[in-house]
Automatic annotation (TrEMBL):
Coiled-coil features, chain-numbered ranges: 77-111
Residue intervals of the K-box domain: 84-171
A GO cellular component entry from the record: nucleus
Gene Ontology biological-process entries: positive regulation of transcription by RNA polymerase II
Location in or out of the cell: Nucleus
Protein name: MADS-domain transcription factor
Source species taxonomy: Eukaryota, Viridiplantae, Streptophyta, Embryophyta, Tracheophyta
């Protein structure tokens, strides 16, 4: 018995729906690859799952943007509104301007000079180089003056510090000499005071001194 026909309707079971989506998505992308290789067709497939995740495939010989542009031309349908068209034109303008600037930059580097055929173009390039060189020299001179100014400031600070250290050394030497003189003066004054206190004590000591006979029995004999 053959398989029965499956009714095409939304699968209510979340797990079964996810499994079916994964299988059929892979099958669809596989068929797109096969027709692209077998028939040399330009194929692009974009799939969004219910979760919002995107899956895509595009033939190796083309891009999704190219396919959309071709679709726009052949179908006559506007894929972009006026705002997006203006944005696309602005992007094209910026790309062209960037390409022009890249060419000019190569010329300033001395590259692709052979592409300049007119004398006016060469003169304009030479003038631009001279202007740039003058600006570079001005900037170098400005930096050089700034360096010299910083050197002078550092030298002034160095001399100021040396003077401060020298003055501190002089102050310390003067303080040591003053402290030595003061200490010596105090020592002399203290010594003189001790002498003055000691001198009056000598008579007082002799005044109270009583001579004792060496032999006590001498008095008895006399």
């Amino acid at each position: 018995m053959g398989r029965g026909k499956i009714e095409i309707k939304r699968i209510e079971n979340t797990s079964n729906r996810q499994v079916t989506y994964s299988k059929r998505r892979n099958g669809l992308i596989k068929k797109a690859k096969e027709i692209s290789v077998l028939c040399d067709a330009h194929v692009s497939v974009v799939i969004f799952a219910s979760t919002g995740k995107m899956h895509e495939y595009c033939s190796p010989s083309t891009t999704l943007v190219d396919i959309l542009e071709r679709y726009h031309k052949h179908s006559g349908k506007k894929l972009w509104d006026a705002k997006h068209e203006n944005l696309s034109s602005e992007i094209d303008r910026i790309k062209k301007e960037n390409d022009s600037m890249q060419i000019e930059l190569r010329h300033l580097r001395g590259e692709d000079i052979t592409s300049l055929h007119g004398h006016k173009e060469l003169m304009a390039l030479e003038e631009a180089l001279e202007t740039g060189l003058a600006s570079i020299r001005d900037r170098e001179m400005e930096l050089f003056k700034g360096m010299k100014k910083n050197e002078r400031m550092l030298e002034d600070d160095n001399r100021r510090l040396q003077c401060m250290l020298h003055q501190q050394g002089i102050d310390m030497e003067g303080g040591d000499m003053e402290n030595g003189y003061h200490h010596q003066h105090q020592h002399q004054h203290h010594h003189h005071h001790q002498v003055r206190e000691y001198q009056p004590q000598m008579p007082f000591a002799f005044h109270n001194l009583q001579i004792q006979p060496i032999q006590p029995n001498l008095q008895e004999r006399f």
